[in-house]
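Amino acid chain:
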Amino acid sequence: MKRIVSVLMSIVVVLSCVVFIMPPNIVLAVNYTWPVDKSIGISSGFGSYSGHTGCDFACSIGHDVYAVADGTVVTATDSGCTGSHRSDGYPKCSKGANCPATKLNKNGKGSYANWIIIRHGTNVYSLYAHLSTESLKVKVGDTVKQGQNIAKTGSAGNVTGPHLHFELRIGGNSTGYAKNPASYLSRENVTPVTNPPTYSNFWVDHYLFDLSETVSFTAVASGADNYTIGIDKTGVGRVVTEGCGSTYTISADRLGAGEYSAYMTVANSAGYVDTYRVYFVVVEKCNFGDKFSARIQNIGTGCYITNKDSKIVGAPESGYNDQIWFFNKCSDGSYTIMSQLDGLMMDDEWDSDVPAGADIRAWSATGQDKQRFNIYYMDDAFYIRPANTKTLVVDMGAGEPYNVACYNLSRNAGQQKYRFDMVGMGDYIPYGLGDEFYAQLRCQGTNLYVTNQSGNVAGAAATADDSQIWKFMRQSNGAYVIQNTLDGSYIDVENSNDANKTNFLSYNEYTGNRNQQFYFYEMDNAFYIKPLISNTRVMDMQSTAPYNVALWDKGNDWGPQKFDVIKVSHSDDNMSKPVETSYFKGHKYELYNESMTWESAKLFCEKKGGHLVTISDEKENEFVNGMRCRNLSTDYQQSIWLGGSDTANEGTWSWITGEPFTYSNWEPNEPNGGTSQNYLQMYSSGNWDDVQNEAGRFVLCEYDSVQPKLTPVASSLSLSDNIGFNIYMQISDDVLSDDGAMMIITNSDGKVIKKPISSYETTTYQDKSVKKIVSMVPAAKMSGKLSFKILKSDGTESSTYICSVMDYANEMIKKADTDNECKKALPLVKAMLNYGAYSQIYFGEDNTNLANAILKDDNTATIKSEDIIKSITYSEQGLFSNKDLGYIGSSLICESDTSLKLYFNNKNKLTEKQIKGRYDISTLDKNKHDYDTGVDGSIFWIKIKGIKPAELGNVYGVNLVSDEGSVIVETSPYVYVKKALESGDSRLQNLCKAMWAYGQAAREYEK
């Protein structure tokens, strides 16, 4: 009995020692399961021969190998070995001495050949060796579960035959730490516990596809063994649901033209997750025919693509050959685009892998893809994509020098949208006859002259009458407006109807429409005259009486369509000047101190582009009578004509403009003239009367469309406040009197802001009344151009004024030596420009035009991160979590101002409405900034807006108060800056350094 007790005590002591001497940094699993099917036993045990540091499991090639416990893969080596390298081993490796496994040790027998090592917890490793090549199912870094199939058994390397060599290493990852696996393994197999899959990315290879291309999708997921693609078409719904792998391709032709979104469902036996959606568009290539000539106008800038000294840039409309391009269709539907100036081709410089920012240039023809372009129509415009890229399109810079280059497609960005003005006729382009001249038009087919015959255009024998003399005025698009010198009327294609037999009129009003503009083409020893409304039809004079001039399809060397332009000497009439010009509700009014009949007055105003004044209400009547009273005698005879009559229907008065005759101010007992008095006049009292068409009344012309004027007189820059550009503008009276007039501000990214002119502050500058136009500018867009123009309620627009924050800041820097205010602001201006430049770099904005380009002393990158970090002593405080919400962290949003965005884990996926109903939300900061809230999936966020540069170091609090538990967070923008400076992202670090320096400079400026 004593002996038995002694033995038991010895065992206890030994076990106690084992527990005691086990290093504290080793944690063993509770249970290690069999590495192969439990029916397979151990054929060679641990230490069964010298150097055997594991157990062998003899089995044929191809049995599943399982992880013995949960862990992380630290080695996964597949040397490609297919068999044994021993003389007594089988099967032999097919690669022989060329097998990479032979280089694993000195004896050339291949060692483990193909093997996996898994770390289990702390300092415990399992090794699986001699595996079948290409059977490894895991890679380094993968997390595996106990019982998970990781490979197949093999017979590779230093083996006599097929088996699995298994080791268990405790205390370190080498053979010196190998222990007898039989002491730890349990002869059982388990089914691994599978977690639902996750994904980290999903993308479509680009955005714009034409019907000849293939659309490819890729998902990056972990733990997924099943994938399904879902593709939806806008306006239609689901069009594709198919099982697939982690990649999926489909022909764009199968989908058809349209706008699409897609996502993948990634799944395994434990569940599934849907990726986010990606968006793309399928568009058919435009087919304009085999050959044509056109001008190409950029919608964002209004400029035309121009060949300037072999550089392709944007320029204002000129109508010359430097802006005319010849398109020649290729076999694949793309076009080469040749300049009509010098025969050079549009070319994007790169044979392949075109980078964003690659210039479009004019180059000699090479026949390469870089000189072919696909054209697509969407968003009511054309996009132009070089044939050697799938992602970039032709883009025009927002400001001088309006460089034309390739950039990533940005849907609906004006700088990438174009319209084509078809100007060619076959291989011929418009001919320049001169800017302004007088001439006769003689038809070669009839030998008659184009004549104004009481408003109709027809042929007649030569006369000395002004009805055959026409004034030609070249427009900016290269077309000509043709005005008759007899009555000032204009050649006009009736009703803009592009059809054979459409009549040509001599219309008394210039509309500016394309049916009154004409291109001249020199061919067949004559000129063909084509209105801009048509691509195929030209002016044609009937060969027989009445020799009418009409529109017809162009013939082949057809005499009635061939004209001579015979220039003559002539001078304009010295037309009368108005005694007063005034504006009312956006309309322009001109009073002439000349008397004439109603019919003559009507024609007089129409020749000037207006009409006899019409009156719609009492206010306008008072305004018109005021003009009359200020300039004409109060005598009864000093009446003016109004644009009303009842000639069409006796007793029913109407305005010549067709507008409703709803207001009247008749003198008592008027109208009384019956059929003899059919025309409307205004007395000196402002009352109305009906009279005959007789002389003695004066003329007041009204213009419904007047181009508004804006004249910048001064500018200023918000420095210590948010980044804002202030322009002080004189605005013309017609705009100020138009309640519907709008200021249109277009940012460099094409974003348009519309605000009523009346909403801007009115102030004075040098004793002049001006409007202060304020535009807020994101930091990354300081170098981008801003454009300003006025849009009146009648649709007329002013000219455009273009400027930028960077340009104005540069002027302040140049003036710092002579201007004290600029000198004081100099450190802040420099810090602001540095902040703008590093914002451009970080956010990928126009890196070719950095905001701080003028500076010679950019020291941002030299500021030491550790110095800033040491200066930021504040740390976040509060109650960070409850049952619904858990604070995750914050980020900064850099725009014209800075916003601090705080993120919370929305544990129960509450809606924004539910959160606001459950919590009293407020912010605590001394300047009371506005804030927004929102929910994005499982994230609830609060964004504190409008933080000024000098406020970046302030503390901001967010309170979500509830009786059931509150969440309170106090933080500062500098907390995010500190974290960013501790990251490894150098671009983000430089941005935060620049932001910090900008904030410090703003504080100093405000002292």
Summary: The two ends are 95 Å apart (CA to CA). The chain is about 15% helix and 40% strand.
